[in-house]
Amino acid sequence: xxxxxxxxxxxxxxxxxxxxxxxxxxxxxxxxxxxxxxxxxxxxxxxxxxxxxxxxxxxxxxxxxxxxxxxxxxxxxxxxxxxxxxxxxxxxxxxxxxxxxxxxxxxxxxxxxxxxxxxxxxxxxxxxxxxxxxxxxxxxxxxxxxxxxxxxxxxxxxxxxxxxxxxxxxxxxxxxxxxxxxxxxxxxxxxxxxxxxxxxxxxxxxxxxxxxxxxxxxxxxxxxxxxxxxxxxxxxxxxxxxxxxxxxxxxxxxxxxxxxxxxxxxxxxxxxxxxxxxxxxxxxxxxxxxxxxxxxxxxxxxxxxxxxxxxxxxxxxxxxxx
Length: 322
Description:
This protein is mainly beta. It contains 1 helix and 21 strands. It has a 21-stranded mixed sheet that branches. Strand 5 and strand 6 form a beta hairpin. The longest helix is centred in the N-terminal third of the chain and has 14 residues. One of its GO terms (molecular function) is glycolipid transfer activity. This is Organic solvent tolerance-like N-terminal domain-containing protein. InterPro entries: LPS_export_LptA, OstA-like_N. It comes from Niveispirillum lacus.
């Protein structure tokens, strides 16, 4: 069956507009088709309903109408659809709502499947992909496909494999060549986990980013690499651990850990990995035997590595006076 208009999926409400559309379609819409009309079903004593877990209802707007498959237990909206729950808005070319029977004889939506130009917006953060699955039991949305990216007022996060949004835990996960970029710096890793926190105005924003696997932090003045990393956005301090290398120009420092100040773009190699706690740029406790190593390339502008004076041109080799 097909119905048009809007549908409200509520925990305590009914799918009233969808049910009305279904009744009207059964009585008039199908009779206008070229094929022989199907018998009009007897009026139902109860209005069909789709309930959803959670305290906020979901409103689905489908200008092209709905396809309601009772045996398959799915309602499909095609031709562009929007699902809204609180401040979260999911739009796609096709949106399918899967439901299951409840103990009281009703229906309960447990999964939303979106395909085609998917956009998931929550406040001032917007995620893009070509496919998304929203698990309502876990309050987790997973976006896959081409063009995966998450944009905020200050950062852009991209990924190759998937973007995940864990609503209850207030965190986002980017998997596969993940990149979080700002105008002045960027952090890249196999996986990025972004923790969200609310500010004084109760607005949700990025608070910390944990990076794992092939971590690279790039600032305007240097590049720092390591196995794992943690970046605190409030203090703009990052901590890298595991096979750390910090490169500035041709000079390189190696060690077990590094504290990176993203405000100044300066890193400090640490002789050991600090204990758990807030990320700071302070040196760690005394070393436990692991050394910090450095490679420094002498200044080659003048002879003997001595910097040239402004306007001075180095004399060719062999032309020096005795």
